[in-house]
């Protein structure tokens, strides 16, 4: 591996040149309870080996504990206040329209992947859902030999756009269904095959949380899925990579004792108290994958219309059963390190066992196909696993013991923390 520089400073963090392939595996919805149950059941020997021989702790993800802000934090090594991705869906202040935060134009900071790829490193970024591919791929030097694609559209890869073609043949798997475990397993199998064939310098492999949205830790389906993830991680390590494993967010079940989704319909509650049109609820988890969560999350935005009061709104919603916190924009930005210009007037978070919807008429739980409502978004879904396959040096052992570890520290710990 020949890089232009011995170190690169990216978003105020200095990264050493890796001396062996670095792979970060992001398990979408990889709540620590899955790891704990897997260890108890003896089904994840490779992750257990990582824990025994390397480093393991419970880290905190970004709040809102959603996919987009956390993935961009992981690949930039920075919080949303730096990189600008503050939710999955938001009101663009420039247009006033609600839009998904999937356009790379919303990213304000360079990624670790892009900067290394522009300095002669071969970088690979593979994700399950194509909605995330463009965000992860921003700035990656495809012409210089780097690779960026999704398993969702692996059959459409071209060297010009993705840095690779004939992916289905390479992985020796058919194109996976979107709502399947195979969408994630394809990512990991592709990573193993590319590592074996090309020996890239830096890799990011990110799955999808379809299984975690449907199956609790310890169930047969989730155990099988976790075991398959573990198998792929073991092969990455055996091929000589230093591997880091983390997640974008946790996952909790939001159901009532009688088996119904436990949801606060926030727009309905606000309209009953203040009248229609006083406040507008915008669901920040919103995306096209309704089978996962029916647009119900644990964190949502509220915009004041006309001269309505944030204080009155906060005082009211704080009394609703299942609401864990309600904050005005300055407070939310300070607490969760968010970009001020992309915040609503008020953010509302639910407790671990409650979800937040808009109006009851807008949610169709038949999308869940008979499965329980399992979702994420708030502080209760913030804890994530943080695992490194090699021992940390003394500096990083002390750092982990004395401060808060975040999921977006993972490249720092894997690249710098394992350096002797």
Short key terms for the protein model shown above:
420 residues, alpha/beta, Alkaline Phosphatase, subunit A, Gyrase A, domain 2, seven-stranded mixed beta sheet, four-stranded antiparallel beta sheet, Phosphodiest/P_Trfase, Phosphonoacetate hydrolase, Phosphonoacetate_hydro, phosphonoacetate hydrolase activity, Alkaline_phosphatase_core_sf
**Considering DSSP H and I runs of 4 or more, what fraction of the residues is helical?**
25-40%
Strand content: 15-25%
CATH superfamily of the largest domain: Alkaline Phosphatase, subunit A
Put simply, the count of helices is 17
Explained architecture:
This protein has 2 domains: 7-251 and 378-415, Alkaline Phosphatase, subunit A (3-Layer(aba) Sandwich), CATH 3.40.720; 263-375, Domain 2, Phosphonoacetate Hydrolase (Gyrase A, domain 2, 2-Layer Sandwich). Helix content is 33%, strand content 20%. Helix 9 packs parallel to helix 11. With 420 residues, it is α/β, with parallel strands linked by helices.
Summarize the structure.
This is Phosphonoacetate hydrolase. It holds the Pfam family Phosphodiest. 33% of the residues lie in helices and 20% in strands.
Helix/strand layout:
Blueprint: E1 7-10, E2 13-16, E3 22-27, H1 32-41, H2 45-53, E4 55-60, H3 67-76, H4 80-83, E5 89-91, E6 98-100, H5 112-117, E7 123-127, H6 130-136, E8 147-150, H7 159-162, H8 167-171, H9 182-198, E9 202-206, H10 210-214, H11 220-238, E10 242-247, E11 252-253, E12 263-265, H12 266-274, E13 279-283, H13 290-293, E14 299-304, H14 310-317, E15 323-328, H15 329-336, E16 346-350, E17 355-357, E18 374-375, E19 383-388, H16 394-402, H17 410-415
Parallel strand pairs: 3-9, 3-10, 7-8, 7-9, 12-17
Antiparallel strand pairs: 1-2, 4-19, 5-6, 10-19, 11-18, 13-14, 14-16, 15-16
